[in-house]
Amino acid sequence: MSKPVILCVDDEPIVLESLRAQLREAFGDAYYYEVAQDADDALEVLDEIQAENTDVIVIVSDWLMPGMKGDEFLIKVHQRFPKVVKVLLTGQADETAIARVKVEANLHKCLFKPWSEADLIEAIQSGLASHG
Q1: pLDDT, position 15
Q2: How would DSSP label each residue in 20-36?
Q3: Cβ proximity of 130 and 122 under 8 Å
């Protein structure tokens, strides 16, 4: 059985590199770490992972991305994968979008850029514990 996946979605490659490095440092080889640069990309990655019978257990998504915004993306994900822990990472999400994703996608946590590594790791650990 393959390892579960943590998927990070952000249109800035430097943010994705930083997230992946922080997650790998905190969780080591316990998970696979996938990245996507926009919501459409991420949905394709989710389809590929599902086709391999692997579970995505956490998604960390930016809010402001080209095409589909993070709130809309996480709501779509929730409709297909309700058990996935969802973390919104944003520099500029409006309160309405955050409230909407909390209600419609069971958002676990919203972190604001620049985030602290400790907050990111805590959000994922508490999300995994509560969705366990």
Answers
A1: 97
A2: HHHHHHHHGGGSEEEEE
A3: no
d(CA 99, CA 74): 12
Evaluate whether 45 touches 37 at the Cβ level (below 8 Å).
no
Boundaries of every domain in the chain:
5-131
Alpha-carbon distance 54 to 40, whole Å?
A: 19
Which residues, other chains included, contact 67 with Cβ-Cβ below 8 Å and sequence gap of 6+?
A: 38, 39, 40
Tell me how far apart the alpha carbons of residues 34 and 46 are, in angstroms, rounded to a whole number.
10
pLDDT digits 0-9 by tens, 113-128: 999 999 999 999 999 9
Q: What's domain 5-131's superfamily in CATH?
A: Response regulator (3.40.50.2300)
Where do runs of H (alpha helix) occur along 91-131? 95-105, 117-131
pTM equals 0.96
